[in-house]
Design a protein that fits this description.
Layout lengths: L2 H13 L4 E6 L5 H9 L9 E8 L2 H9 L6 H17 L5 E5 L7 H8 L3 E2 L5 E2 L7 E9 L22 H5 L13 H8 L11 H5 L10 H20 L1
Antiparallel strand pairs: 1-2, 2-6, 3-6, 4-5
Helix pairs in contact: 1-4
């Protein structure tokens, strides 16, 4: 693999706001992760590398706005289009299996932890050293190429040095209690209330003091939270 070309591809993705990338060797994935993937009918042993792509901060929304909201799920569409361009143009169209967002169920949080992307937070979300809680997974695929490993070095959690924990006091549903104590049902019940203040935002997330310069723009916040609420409503109707 031409590492210079790979670096160019990483730069290309970053220009699109997809500024988080990790490469994990399929052979060295922990057994519990491998078994989860294999149980999901993913032919893990046919591939050499797992590539995770994510975004942190505001650049993705700017790039997506320029690209255009072209489908019913524009964020996933944009992410997949750019990921496929990355494979075709910078990985020489090597055989690849798109996993996310492409119908497969994969343990994103576990893979992200292996990549060094995040630590647990009281919000039930990971928290990134650079972007705080303002990052997300956007794509994952397997490739037959033996790519060089790309992982963030181990760091301490920003939550460890946060004394006031404003995220806890800001939650009107009292769903945010501490690391590993997030009450999903309390959050969902409160968001589903008529005229809930949490329908299109998360007050606890907004209260997090880590990396406020990367906080999503209002339009991006509105998009993500109204879409997540719609998904919750569909789930409960079923």
């Amino acid at each position: 693999m031409n590492e210079a070309k790979l670096s160019q591809g990483v730069e290309f993705l970053a220009e699109q706001g997809l500024n988080l990338l990790a490469v994990l060797s399929c052979e060295t994935l922990p057994d519990n992760v491998s078994q989860t993937l294999l149980a999901g009918d993913i032919p893990l042993h046919d591939y050499r590398s797992m590539v995770l792509i994510g975004h942190g901060g505001r650049r993705l929304w700017q790039a997506l706005t320029d690209f255009g909201m072209q489908t019913a799920d524009p964020v996933d569409h944009f992410s997949l289009v750019m990921t496929r361009r990355f494979v075709d143009e910078f990985l020489d169209s090597s055989p690849a299996l798109m996993l996310y967002p492409a119908g497969y169920t994969i343990p994103l949080q576990q893979l992200g932890a292996l990549a060094g992307w995040h630590h647990p937070s009281p919000l039930g979300l990971g928290i990134n050293e650079t972007y705080g809680v303002w990052f997300a997974y956007r794509a994952a695929f397997l490739t037959t190429l033996p790519l060089p490993a790309i992982q963030n070095p181990k760091t301490t959690s920003p939550c460890d040095t946060c004394r006031d924990k404003p995220c806890i006091g800001a939650c009107p549903a009292q769903a945010v209690q501490g690391v590993g104590q997030f009450k999903v049902s309390a959050c969902v019940d409160f968001r589903l209330q008529e005229q809930s203040i949490c329908q299109d935002r998360c007050l606890s997330r907004l209260a997090c003091p880590v990396a406020p310069e990367h906080r999503y723009e209002p339009a991006q916040l509105h998009y993500h939270y109204t879409h997540s609420l719609a998904s919750i409503r569909r789930y409960y109707r079923q």
